[in-house]
């Protein structure tokens, strides 16, 4: 159910990251850190490449969440103040963004009865107001400046680079792939000609717009004043 996906992305994944922060000892052996961070950073690329070929919208958003949490996991293992701060910021930003994307995907599913990207094209013509929320969610997911997603990712990338310069190849490639599949998702669902089965799509309801506002407003407020997190 979409409500379960929203709770999973916004709360349960963050409980896992918080548990890693609290339970990882400060004097953890480097023998354990190297393979775990290698798997986490490699997972960012692998999930991104998987998203590039996904045709299921909900599965695409879910794999995107896994990629972002790979950054969080690698940052929390280093156990420096800068990495922990970046992980906290990215977890909060990702919780809002991913939950918003799951809700938007469910709105399209309720109207088209399918989760295939090819069957959802041209939604801008049927739901022009929701396109603005799709744009906000997509741009924050790919960490557009000056959103808090970018701040968290930059802090994590800087920490990983100071820990090992080789990690910049993995994180930079992951960020580029994220931008590609996020823009592809936005363009596929919003642009193009509508299918014959999508002609009778009803516009967004008030409760749906309220849910979107409750996601977009915290993102905007945290972007304008990051000290609210601390």
TrEMBL record:
Enzyme Commission number(s) of this protein? 7.1.1.2
- Residues annotated as domain NADH:quinone oxidoreductase/Mrp antiporter transmembrane: 1-178
User: Per UniProt, what is one GO molecular function of this protein?
Assistant: NADH dehydrogenase (ubiquinone) activity
Q: What is its main location?
A: mitochondrion
One Gene Ontology cellular component term attached to this UniProt record is: mitochondrial membrane
Can you tell which superkingdom this protein's organism belongs to? Eukaryota
Class of the enzyme per the UniProt entry, highest EC level = translocase
InterPro entries, per the entry: NADH_UbQ_OxRdtase, ND/Mrp_TM
Query: What subcellular compartments does it reside in?
Result: Mitochondrion membrane
Q: Which GO terms describe its biological process?
A: ATP synthesis coupled electron transport; electron transport coupled proton transport
Query: Which positions, given as ranges, span the membrane?
Result: 33-52, 59-82, 88-109, 130-148, 168-188, 209-229
User: What catalytic activity does the UniProt entry give for this protein?
Assistant: a ubiquinone + NADH + 5 H(+)(in) = a ubiquinol + NAD(+) + 4 H(+)(out)
Q: How does it sit in the membrane?
A: Multi-pass membrane protein
The UniProt keywords, alphabetically, are:
Electron transport, Membrane, Mitochondrion, NAD, Respiratory chain, Translocase, Transmembrane, Transmembrane helix, Transport, Ubiquinone
Q: What does this protein do?
A: Core subunit of the mitochondrial membrane respiratory chain NADH dehydrogenase (Complex I) that is believed to belong to the minimal assembly required for catalysis. Complex I functions in the transfer of electrons from NADH to the respiratory chain. The immediate electron acceptor for the enzyme is believed to be ubiquinone.
The record's comment on protein family reads:
Belongs to the complex I subunit 4 family.
**Which named protein is this?**
NADH-ubiquinone oxidoreductase chain 4
User: What species is given as this protein's source?
Assistant: Phrynocephalus versicolor
């Amino acid at each position: 159910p979409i409500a379960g996906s929203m709770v999973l992305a916004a709360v349960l994944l963050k409980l896992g990251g918080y548990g890693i922060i609290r339970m990882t000892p400060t004097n953890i052996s480097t023998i354990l850190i190297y393979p775990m961070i290698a798997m986490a950073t490699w997972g960012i690329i692998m999930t991104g490449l998987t998203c590039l070929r996904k045709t299921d919208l909900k599965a695409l958003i879910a794999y995107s969440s896994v990629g972002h949490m790979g950054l969080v996991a690698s940052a929390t293992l280093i156990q420096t103040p800068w990495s922990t701060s970046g992980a906290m910021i990215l977890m909060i930003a990702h919780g809002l963004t991913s939950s918003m994307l799951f809700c938007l995907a469910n709105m399209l599913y309720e109207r088209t009865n399918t989760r295939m990207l090819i069957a959802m094209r041209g939604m801008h013509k049927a739901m022009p107001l929701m396109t603005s929320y799709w744009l906000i969610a997509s741009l924050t997911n790919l960490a557009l400046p000056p959103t808090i997603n970018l701040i968290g990712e930059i802090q994590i990338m800087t920490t990983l680079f100071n820990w090992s310069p080789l990690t910049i190849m993995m994180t930079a490639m992951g960020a580029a792939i994220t931008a590609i599949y996020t823009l592809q998702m936005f363009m596929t669902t919003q642009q193009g000609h509508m299918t014959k089965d999508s002609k009778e799509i009803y516009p967004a309801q008030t409760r749906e717009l309220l849910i979107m506002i409750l996601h977009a407003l915290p993102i905007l407020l945290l972007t304008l004043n990051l000290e609210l997190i601390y």
